Write a sequence for this structure.
């Protein structure tokens, strides 16, 4: 039977589209980090005016791709930040980028890839949702999340003027090609057009559901009016005369801006619309949805022209190339949460090529292989990526477990086995901020896979129904544990496939598991669920009476301490004995928030505690003996999902909803924190 590492060698030898690209895994790293795996989930895509380049704004930065060879350049420096807004100067020489939780706008020279200038936002402003250049390229105009319009002098980087206008929070935004008009759409279906120079509201569309509901209540109408739902996508036609909006009501609406009326409602999608775009000639509009479908529509007739299939997950962004020679002139580029960007011929509906990969959203779990040279990570959709730790390059992608959305995933300690429970559903990632909107997953069995052979391991766990919401392996990798809400917690011996224990729980919600290093104790916790600690050998519950609903639990490497975190009570340490658990100490002022992750350092002297502070996602380091805060690590732009140390204890891996894994040099971090604390 062929081993996975033979497959890895074969895959690595195949000339992939971006295999010759420069190493961008070390660009813009935070202090202490040695590599970034993954490129971040896609928020926005734009072709350069000449169509020679595709620029992608992600949850961690900007990626510039040459068309069609795919040569890539990472355009970000220093602390990463989300990029949700992009704009080209009219001559195509300068790119502007900015975004959510990103206090700066950066100007880039597209010929050299060098940064030209950094424009710093005000103290109270931390989000840019849209950017556009003036016709003479002397000014850059930015839109903030509360409607603040700022004009910047491109040459000096200074503010020229502000036009503040308070608007409702919105979830979609676009700017006309001539740079004169911003359009925003909110969760009530209201679309507003705003002058980029004066900030004045020009007109509005939609959002009438509340008004009709009011009339119905006072007039006693029984008929149901059209329901407005959240606008998730907007796009202007090239001539600025029409606006396309995509909504959670599964429709695309075309609005005639001059007549101030709806031109057409396009129906046919089965789930929420997540992206829309007009072709360069304005005759075609493309729409993508949360269940991986792209449709092409004739603007004049409102008829569907084609359905494009190929992506494995939600469509995050769509953009058309400028007119030019075939096959890539005028083509459609689609970016998906599955990590790929694909090019399509809009005339035939045929896929031209998978342009690039690596933009997968939401890393849920990470594990180091026993050989010390590879690492496995899994995304929200159950795909597993294998990484070479020496080169920080992806070696292979395991897709047999791929689904729309997973409810639970787990790696064995040495990354040789992978368990998951996924199913059908819909997921839409927020293009202007963090987080996602999901429906599902639906039915799906627990799957257990041997990653060294690529073969599924059958067993009784497959016959447990489709409601497993948590999975874990014991430290010795002999036991698989699964949580089933109110149906309790079950486990199996992976060698004999015999069920070992079944613990009853009353809560319906999801939970997480933590084994002691010896595998003799199992702790569980979760949102709105009671925390429990069981002795695996005796099946006796030994939960301390003072532990209630805690957000995270972790055992120290020696198994002597159990740490639990609570958003109100801070961090509490418990001393573990063979027969009892007693409170040891506290860090009451940890203010840890709602993170469900806690991890001890390899020597057990430091506790790592992720926390979100003012949209910053930090890893706090606590001295276990003194309770003192040693410092923080920063580098992720969204919630941190997992923290795992390599087997030799030299490398820390942090996985995040931003779609990346950061690798940290633990010795360097300790040395830096020690030096900083001595200085204080």
């Amino acid at each position: 039977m062929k081993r996975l590492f033979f497959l890895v060698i074969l895959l690595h030898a195949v000339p992939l589209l971006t295999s010759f690209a420069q190493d961008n895994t070390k660009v813009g790293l935070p202090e202490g980090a040695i590599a970034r795996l993954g490129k971040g989930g896609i928020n926005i895509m734009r072709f350069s005016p000449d169509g020679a380049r595709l620029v992608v704004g992600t949850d961690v930065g900007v990626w510039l791709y040459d068309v069609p060879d795919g040569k890539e350049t990472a355009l970000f420096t220093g602390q990463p930040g989300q990029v949700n807004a992009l704009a080209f100067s009219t001559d195509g020489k300068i790119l502007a980028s900015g975004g959510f939780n990103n206090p700066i706008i950066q100007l880039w020279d597209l010929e050299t890839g060098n940064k030209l200038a950094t424009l710093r936002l005000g103290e109270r402003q931390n989000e840019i949702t849209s950017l556009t250049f003036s016709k003479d390229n002397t000014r850059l105009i930015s839109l903030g999340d509360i409607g603040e319009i700022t004009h910047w002098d491109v040459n000096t980087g200074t503010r020229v003027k502000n036009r503040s206008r308070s608007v409702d929070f919105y979830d979609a935004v676009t700017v006309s090609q001539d740079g004169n008009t911003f359009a925003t759409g909110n969760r009530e279906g209201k679309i507003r057009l705003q002058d980029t120079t004066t900030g004045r509201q020009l007109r509005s569309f939609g959002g009438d559901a509340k008004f009709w509901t009011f009339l119905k209540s006072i007039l006693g109408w029984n008929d149901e009016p059209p329901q407005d739902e959240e606008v998730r996508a907007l796009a202007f036609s090239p001539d600025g005369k029409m606006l396309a909006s995509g909504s959670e009501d599964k429709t695309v609406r075309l609005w005639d801006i001059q007549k101030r009326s709806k031109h057409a409602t396009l129906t046919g999608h089965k789930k929420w619309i997540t992206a829309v775009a007009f072709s360069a000639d304005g005759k075609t509009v493309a729409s993508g949805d949360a269940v991986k479908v792209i449709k092409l529509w004739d603007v004049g007739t409102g008829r569907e022209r084609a359905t494009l299939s190929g992506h494995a997950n939600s469509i995050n962004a769509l953009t058309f190339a400028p007119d030019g020679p075939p096959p890539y002139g005028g083509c459609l580029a689609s970016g998906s949460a599955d990590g790929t960007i694909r090019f399509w011929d809009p005339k035939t509906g045929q896929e031209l090529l998978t342009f690039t990969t690596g933009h997968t959203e939401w890393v849920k779990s990470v594990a180091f292989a026993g050989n010390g040279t590879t690492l496995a990570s899994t995304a929200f959709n159950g795909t597993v990526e294998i990484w070479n730790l020496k080169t920080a390059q992806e070696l292979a992608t395991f897709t047999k477990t791929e689904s729309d959305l997973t409810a639970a995933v787990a790696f064995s300690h040495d990354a040789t086995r992978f368990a998951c429970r996924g199913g059908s559903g819909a997921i839409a990632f927020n293009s202007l901020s963090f987080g996602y909107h999901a429906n599902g997953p639906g039915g799906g069995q627990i799957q257990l896979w041997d990653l060294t052979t690529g073969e599924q391991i059958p067993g009784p766990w497959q016959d447990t129904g489709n409601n497993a919401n948590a999975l874990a392996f014991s430290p010795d990798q002999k036991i698989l544990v699964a949580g089933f809400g109110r149906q309790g917690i079950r486990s199996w011996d992976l060698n004999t496939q015999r069920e070992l224990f079944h613990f009853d729980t009353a809560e319906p919600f999801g939970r997480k598991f933590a084994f002691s290093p010896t595998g003799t104790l199992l702790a569980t916790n979760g949102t709105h669920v009671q925390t429990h600690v069981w002795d695996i050998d005796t099946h006796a519950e030994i939960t301390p009476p003072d532990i209630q609903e805690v957000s995270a639990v972790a055992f120290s490497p020696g198994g002597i301490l159990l740490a639990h975190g609570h958003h109100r009570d801070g961090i509490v340490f418990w001393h573990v004995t063979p027969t009892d658990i007693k409170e040891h100490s506290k860090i009451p002022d940890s203010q840890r928030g709602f993170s469900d992750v806690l991890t001890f350092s390899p020597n057990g002297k430091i506790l790592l505690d992720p926390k979100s502070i003012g949209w910053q996602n930090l890893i706090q380091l606590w001295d276990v003996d003194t309770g003192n805060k040693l410092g923080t690590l920063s580098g992720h732009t969204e919630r941190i999902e997992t923290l795992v140390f390599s087997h030799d204890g030299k490398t820390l891996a942090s996985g995040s909803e931003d779609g990346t894994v950061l690798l940290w040099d633990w010795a360097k971090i300790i040395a830096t924190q020690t030096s900083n604390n001595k200085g204080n």
